[in-house]
Amino acid sequence: MTLRGYELFNLITMVKPQEEKTLVLVKPDGVKRGLVGECLRRIEQRGLKIIALKMFTPTREEIKKHYPNTDKWLRGLGEKTLEHYKAHGQDPMKELGTDDTLEIGRKVSGWLEEFMISGPVVACVVQGIHAVEMVRKIVGNTLPAKADMGTIRGDYSVDSPTLANLQKRSIHNVVHASGDPDEALHEIEHWFNPQEIHPYKRAEEDIMF
Question: Which of 22, 44, 91, 116 is deepest in the core (most CB within 10 A)?
Fold first, then answer.
């Protein structure tokens, strides 16, 4: 089996913890609010490296391939949405016409796709020690109300799933960050080709590591 260029690149660098990679997308709301620079600043300030960067308006097909869109993933979306409806006394049958988690997941996935193709996004590959975990800490909890102050979502997003569900749209939470190394590998390969990734050494690395 022939390895794609980036898979080979990952196998070569995987032995070095400081070269772990993850993907960050500044979503359309983050771009429109002028938060791209702030998001990148926080990542670099933490000692992580941005080794690939570009802006584009994704197509629906590209977004569909970005997310897993498996029945398991869709049911997960549906379950979380159903929990929010019940927690706030909302009737999913009245609001969505169904209480089936898979069907709800498909609806929520559609809202997410609409949001992600509504304007340009900025994608970057971030590299560094525990890059996946560190970036997740920097961006904060997916739900803005649960995101700690000092994180990107905690400081810049005030949206809620309750309001988003009522308006039948995706939560506006500024950024996306890969959830685990496998997800990061898939997402980086999806949005970047090997020629767009530029490893380099930051000036302070000899002191930091």
Answer: 22
d(CA 157, CA 160): 9
Percent of the chain with pLDDT over 90: 73
132 neighbors 9 (Cβ within 8 angstroms): no
Q: Is residue 176 part of a domain?
A: yes
The pLDDT mean for the chain works out to 90
Half-sphere exposure of 13 (CA within 13 A, CB side): 18
pLDDT attached to residue 156: 97
Ramachandran area for residue 140 (φ above 0: left; ψ -120 to 50: alpha; else beta): left
- Residues marked as catalytic: 176
CATH number of residue 147's parent domain? 3.30.70.141
**What's the pLDDT at 162?**
83
Structure tokens at 58: 């994704």
Query: Structurally, how many domains does the chain consist of?
Result: 1
Q: Could you tell me the residue range of the domain that residue 105 belongs to?
A: 15-193
* Helix, strand, coil distribution of the chain in percent, nearest 5: 55, 10, 35
Q: Is residue 199 part of a domain?
A: no
**Does residue 11 carry a pLDDT above 60?**
no
Q: Provide the token pair at 132.
A: 């996946």
